[in-house]
Design a protein that fits this description.
Layout (H helix, E strand, L loop, with lengths): L2 H7 L2 H31 L16 H12 L9 H24 L8 H8 L2 H21 L9 H12 L8 H31 L19 H34 L11 H12 L8 H27 L14
Helix pairs in contact: 2-3, 2-4, 2-11, 4-5, 4-6, 5-8, 6-8, 8-9, 9-10, 9-11
Length: 327
């Protein structure tokens, strides 16, 4: 099948609505844990016990501090940019993944070609997620600094006016690298866990011979998919965050710095400082809430995506995967 023919078989509207559902559900559920992770990564959570060797608070301690000192709504401060960008990113990522999976002839299960299919879109995703992550991180840190920003748009306008448009792409290189590492592991693990759990629960996978959507195979029971999809999605998210977390910790240090500080700290400097002051463990500061958030968000994200496609066409794998011949 040619690339042009394949594009005609991919229902962009279905993929877009599935991605949109995944982005909204995942962002709303996971944002408070993302805020807690950022505070722990950047060391702001240490403020309550700074000095004297007092142990920094854990995930629940940080959450309690935020609610007690800033109010419950502070858990959602800065949600605007990720709510918009992640809806776009999920639409793009699921659609591009389906396309490139056809090009690379990826199949169900633990197939490294699924990783390549996910990673291929990372340069485009990074163009969107770098400004989003930057504004989100600056907003999250603003609560413990001057509280000068009224909202995400105000934050963007103030920072662009003070530092120029390029400030929105602070930390772009490390963020794009993180995106590639994350999304490659994400789809690889999801397809692997999905097929493994399906075979364990039903005695068969999502398609004969590892290829999606064998028309001769009966559709899988909805109850099986309801159990498998969120579990596989949760496991994929947890594994991907664990794999890419050191890069995200460096990204948070680069994008969360005080822009008024004359000393500029790039990714290499942040990485070196983390190792010097906190050791290897510093690269995993905040990993607890991140893994919890990843499991919750990814499980709900894949459930929303596959649930939408189930409504539209009876399931993601119905109709078959079309391998693309680029000749």
């Amino acid at each position: 099948m040619s690339a042009d023919d394949f594009l005609q078989t991919v229902n962009i509207g279905e993929e877009a609505l599935g991605g949109l559902a995944a982005g909204i559900v995942g962002t709303v559920l996971g944002f408070p844990l993302d805020l807690i992770k950022t505070r722990m990564q950047t060391g702001v959570a240490d403020g309550a016990g700074a000095g004297g060797g007092v142990r920094p608070p854990g995930m629940f301690g940080v959450a309690s501090q935020i609610v007690r000192s800033e109010g419950a709504l502070a858990l959602y401060k800065g949600i605007g940019p990720p709510l918009v960008s992640l809806s776009i990113i999920n639409t793009l990522s699921f659609t591009s993944y389906s396309y490139f999976r056809g090009i690379y002839r990826g199949s169900n299960g633990w197939d490294v070609r699924n990783s390549y299919a996910g990673m291929t879109g990372a340069p485009v995703f990074g163009l969107i997620t770098t400004p989003e992550n930057f504004l989100k991180t600056q907003m999250q840190m603003d609560n413990v600094r001057s509280r000068r920003f009224r909202g995400s748009l105000h934050c963007a306008s103030v920072l662009v006016r003070e530092h120029g448009f390029r400030v929105l792409y602070t930390g772009h290189a490390v963020n794009m690298t993180r995106e590639a590492a994350f999304v490659g592991c994400y789809f690889y693990c999801y397809e692997g866990f999905r097929e493994t759990f399906l075979r364990g629960l039903t005695g068969r996978g999502g398609g004969e011979g590892g290829v999606r959507g064998d028309e001769a195979a009966p559709s899988l029971p909805p109850t099986a998919m309801a159990a498998v999809v969120p579990l596989a999605g949760g496991m994929a998210g947890a594994c991907s965050w664990l794999f890419s977390f050191p890069l995200d910790c460096v990204r948070a240090g680069v994008q969360g710095r005080d822009l008024g500080d004359p000393i500029r700290r790039g990714a290499v400097r942040v990485f070196a400082d983390l190792l010097a002051t906190k050791g290897v463990g510093g690269l995993y500061a905040g990993v607890g809430p991140s893994i919890a958030r990843a499991f919750l968000v990814s499980g709900s994200r894949f459930s929303a995506y596959e649930g939408a496609l189930w409504l539209f066409r009876g399931g993601r794998d119905r109709g078959g995967v079309q391998h693309i011949d680029l000749k």
